[in-house]
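Submission sheet (multi-component)
Chains listed below:
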Amino acid sequence: RKEVEQDPGPFNVPEGATVAFNCTYSNSASQSFFWYRQDCRKEPKLLMSVYSSGNEDGRFTAQLNRASQYISLLIRDSKLSDSATYLCVVYRGYGGATNKLIFGTGTLLAVQP
Amino acid sequence: EAGVVQSPRYKIIEKKQPVAFWCNPISGHNTLYWYLQNLGQGPELLIRYENEEAVDDSQLPKDRFSAERLKGVDSTLKIQPAELGDSAVYLCASSFGTGGTYEQYFGPGTRLTVT
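Outcome: structure written.
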């Protein structure tokens, strides 16, 4: 079982739709959580951090449930430009050399006109 | 400010040949990472440098892969000899500070095809 699991999709949605992605992680020692965005044939870029209280950035809302080890990303009013792969990322820190980001496989979103 | 620079962007080689990738991190970033990304997968860490020290190379296949960051700035990742299964995108990232912080900035990657 992968340490970070996501539904690979693809999610095909019309413009203006609301879409939600989910992610689970298996290591309870995980400390920090993020969503990265990766456009086709481009590098990953940090989209937003995820906090237990939930956080919002414009049309994007991220939630963390530590008890269930579950992370979500909600995109409202989808735009064509939102089409990309969304990577769920967990920062695993045992201290020192083993601290690292663990990436999920990504969820592909295709917003249709 | 310039981002992480990688070269070459694309490389096609025959199996058993050597190949090298170069990365120049963002100025002032003392931590440098090399990741491997297979098609349909997320990036996987190969090695992390803090300055010139490799602090985590546990995922680097040391029989054929090697890396160096001699002066604590730019870095080279080498594969010798390459195998068909090494075809992937090799991403370099950098961050300010140490400890594997999450604020990593990625380069555009080198897309390797081994035939």
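Remark: The CA atoms of residues 22 and 72 of chain A lie 5 Å apart.
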